[in-house]
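U., I forgot to send this yesterday:
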Amino acid sequence: MWIALVGESACGGGSISHGNNGSRSGTIPRATHAFVLVEENHSYSSVIGNPAMPYTNSLAQQYALATSYYANAHPSLLDYFMLTVGQTIAADDTYTGTVSADNVVRALTAAGKTWKAYAQSLPNRGHTGASVYPYAKDHNPFAYFDDVLKDPTQAANMVPFAQLVTDIQNNSLPDYGFIIPNLNNDGHDCPPGMAACADIHKVAQIDDWVRTNIAPLISSTAFANSVLVYTWDESVVTDRTNGGGHVATILIGSAVRKGYQSTTTYQHQSTLKLTMQLLGVGDYPGLAATAPDMTEFF
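Result:
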């Protein structure tokens, strides 16, 4: 039996319910759209409860928070691959190879689903080339997939972030969306226009960017019956717990249990599996096939 507990949230006061995957039998709903938003290089403790991130913490309190979620590796690219391939694939961010393993593009396409990667500062639609600051190729795993590199139609699904606004307005969002802020807005580098900064400036910029750019998605009619997973690629480099360290992960959507906090241990392969389950796709690439289900969040 699942028992609701009332207590103080890590991100502020209020009623929350706690649980773990073994204590409640849930059902993952069929979603209209599944989104993944990935930020960079911050620990759980630097995000949850941080007064510099009021909007992010309001989402964590309003929707569902995974309190025991861990990235898989350091550095970044390995985690982006785990989120989309179910394998870390690379040794580091200098990887220049092509990924031929099963991946979200292959799984979605085979199931007749649409997808887009909304990459801020992407030089042009379908760009598969090198990084062009502040766009970072190693934060865009789709640019490595042979399914994308060999098919211009698939490559065209990698679009500049501004396309998201158009797709919301036109109610033309894809079934699956992967949102990639640029280096100035994802917590990796200083905010735009700042040559040097403290970490508080980086996290505040993440929060401002998410409030400005993602809140309109969440509140739109186009997002109805959809789910957004808001996570971080990896924790600080000194935290190697479970490979990539403790990170904040928030599940957002009308079907998500409100004010819920999970204590179950999850990693990026569970997010990959969840996005496929939400869309009714039966192909779970790589480690997603055996990853713990995130049913407790619904």
